[in-house]
Amino acid sequence: MAIVVVLAGSWFGYQQLADKGCSGGIALSVAAAPEMVPAVQQAAKRWSDAGAEVNGTCVNVNVSGVSPASMASTIALKHRVTLSGLGAVSKDGTVPDVWIPDSTTWLLRLRSEASGFQPTDGKSLAQSPVVIAMPQPVAEKIGWPDRKLGWADLVKQMTTGNSLRTGIVDPNRDAAGLAGLLALGGAAGTSAQAKAQQVGALRSLALGSSSLREDLLEKFPRSEDAADLTTAISAAPLSEEDVISYNADKPVVPLAALYLDPKPPALDYPYAVMPEVGIDLNKSAAATGLRQAMEQPAFRDELARVGLRGPDGVAGAGFANPTGGPKPSAAPAAATGTEGAAAAGLDAGSINQVLGSWAAITQPGRVLAVFDVSGSMADKVPTADNQSRAAVTRTAATQGLKLFDNEWAVGTWIFSTEMNGKLPYKEIVPISPLTSARSELEASISKITPKAGGATGLYDTALAAYKKVQEDWQPGRVNSVILFTDGKNSNDDGLKLPALVTELKKANDAKRPVRMVIIGIGNEVDANELETITNATSSGGVFIAEDPAKISDIFLEAIASRSGAAR
Length: 567
Hints:
This protein is of the alpha/beta class. It contains 21 helices and 19 strands. The chain has helices spanning 11-19, 37-49, 68-78, 104-113, 136-141, 151-159, 175-187, 192-207, 213-217, 226-231, 240-248, 281-293, 297-305, 337-340, 348-362, 389-403, 434-444, 458-471, 497-507, 527-535, 551-560, and strands spanning 4-7, 25-32, 58-65, 98-100, 120-124, 130-135, 168-169, 209-210, 236-239, 255-258, 270-273, 365-372, 380-381, 387-388, 409-420, 423-433, 478-485, 515-521, 539-545. Strand 2, helix 2 (37-49) and strand 3 (58-65) form a beta-alpha-beta unit. The longest helix has 16 residues, at 192-207. It is globular, with a radius of gyration of 26 Å.
């Protein structure tokens, strides 16, 4: 019996089913990134026409186009987690049997938040390099297509007053935008000046950000009028397919695709078979059969017609290669896929770090930063030129404060034991808007100095900080406690763990949620103890920097992630 393709449940599909004499079948639902749908539908139809079957049973393939952000939200909801920046999603969303998002980064982000999300297969079906899209007149002014540019050149263009009006699709919701941020981060050096340039570039992108790709594309110039060219968006990270699709409509001002070095992760369109499919052998076999149909030579040509390359970067017949693009017959870069994610430098940690930087710049927040100053914070860190734990924490705090936009409000506490009479904590700066208190907060970081012989009054401090943030809770912001500690609770006069858990649960208020994040410094913290604390709150997590020199990276990951990730 033949495999039957149903396009969005159409009458055509029913007729095919009847004509083949199928009395039943295996239903296989596929949700694909919209640009992939025509090629996937054609591959499924070709598979049907070839008379394929699974154990003598017909397969009913339903292919639908769904934005990757929407499907990621739906999957996250089913696993009772959330992804940063995606917002609310309808509870009526349906998880398909097979998901073809535009990038493996979606799978990595979901797996980092939901341990039960373990899709199989994951082979790349197509590839689209991530480029900087520019109106051709603007690109020509900076030397395109003859001059080879890098991401570092772009950062300079964005931060030295050269009037590049940049934009980006929210990287929480768009894989090309995320790849652009990853490339910018990789291009930045380690010096203070380089870090400052990176922050400036991120803020420049934020000024022209859009929630949807279609909205960003509308911001490109519609005429060659000088005023239009100077006020419209003049550079944005998009996919090669976006540029091809845009130019196919013959706009007055076409877009140039700039392929910058180092190459960011390409969109790789992984074939993700959902975990639930694995328990149904027939459905699992059908999913494998459909993927194999998309490995046939004809599929590469179908991809070319929608502006996509094959998974190895080689394009099929009729591919509209942008000027300056890699030759269609060449394989410019290996696609990512789940097998190649590590090789491409992709992991949930690096993704969350760059999204944490973005969140600090674009999402108004309110945070109380609480720093351990117990005696052990004087211990040396061999991987940081033997600086003390307190010194590397001060560096992380300084870098983080520079990243935060003026929309944020920040306060600082320090804690050990007997810091304010019998209290183990002490307020340095109350939670204050950065517009007015940035200088004071920068100065407060110098107070992160170890107290000789001081122990760790962790439990009382965690409860007091949580209640303080909740007391002055503000709507429209993420209200958080971020607590840094390098040890276990050791305050004989204070709360015990069961009492702390009881008090935190009692303080929980759904109308005034507070996110409790604890960053463990070094290998002397007790991850179970810290997780017991955060689990008693409505949201938050534990992040452990076993190498204290990595605190800055862990800090950014903590801002973006919705749950903890022990390291």
